[in-house]
């Protein structure tokens, strides 16, 4: 446990920034920068890493930064400090998403330690799941975790809406695959074999030969684009769709996007602690007409922020992260 000296606070702030780097982000773009001054951590979005074609409003960039913000918070709490958070503190500085002051706290509880222990273990999955079903109590717990941050995790428990989401995902994937700008943007973040980059999706992060999942098939991003890249597909590969879920927020402003990221990461860390991984499918949410359709017909009027599948996997995916010196201003 760090002492409450200025040196201890500075060390806690550094550890919080290091933990933030392990947050999920669209195409592993890691679109954030940090500054540490005394007892304050500043989180800024990095507009150079925003997906200008598929994320023109910066919604997905802000959700990614919200996930990083939650990692900062849970790390400080695990170290015995209290994070004092101000979200969107400067209306004239839209890239400044949050400031976090490191305040004296208390001994962390068991749940805080549980979530913190998963920060570096959690991985994004990009294939099928095993046939082992998600236990209802665990699913209910994930709903509560997201709600604790102001987000709404809505498990899709019936076939019809799951089929609709799968069909919309496939339609969006097919349209984007014919759009040269979409393809070029995706290729920017697809790392070729042997790449030394510390961002983007590595070749071991997705299967070479993605298998169709059942009962619903959700189209995957084509990171290899005709190349034989990716992790070798084993005969025992899992092909279950897993549990389909939507993450929604009551509103659709920048603060809602930030909260969605915090709720997403809290839920993902809890899931990881029980051996559950998540695969994300945001293609349909990148097309305004399809996103509006999902909002009206599948989200009861709430704003859909994420479409995902969750389940149990046999092998963990590989991931890479930039170093603290890359993101500290």
Brief overview:
GO terms for molecular function: oxidoreductase activity. The chain is α+β, with helices and mostly antiparallel strands.
Characterization of the model:
There is one protein chain. The chain is α+β, with helices and mostly antiparallel strands and 329 residues long. The chain folds into 2 domains: 6-122, NADH Oxidase; 136-312, NADH Oxidase (3-Layer(aba) Sandwich), CATH 3.40.109.10. It has 9 helices and 8 strands. Strand 1 (32-37) and strand 2 form a beta hairpin. Helix 1 (6-20) crosses helix 2 and helix 2 (59-78) crosses helix 7 (254-273). The model has no long low-confidence stretch (mean pLDDT 94).
List key phrases describing it.
329 residues; alpha+beta; NADH Oxidase; four-stranded antiparallel beta sheet; 9 helices; 36% helix
Largest sheet: 4 strands, antiparallel
Biggest sheet: strands side by side, in what order?
Answer: 1-2-4-3
Global morphology: globular
Q: How confident is the prediction overall: mean pLDDT?
A: 94
How are helices and strands ordered from N to C? HEEHEEHHEHHEHEHEH
CATH superfamily of the largest domain: NADH Oxidase
Assembly type of the shown chains?
Answer: single chain
The number of E-state strands comes to 8
Roughly what percent helix? 25-40%
Task: Please give the domain count.
Answer: 2
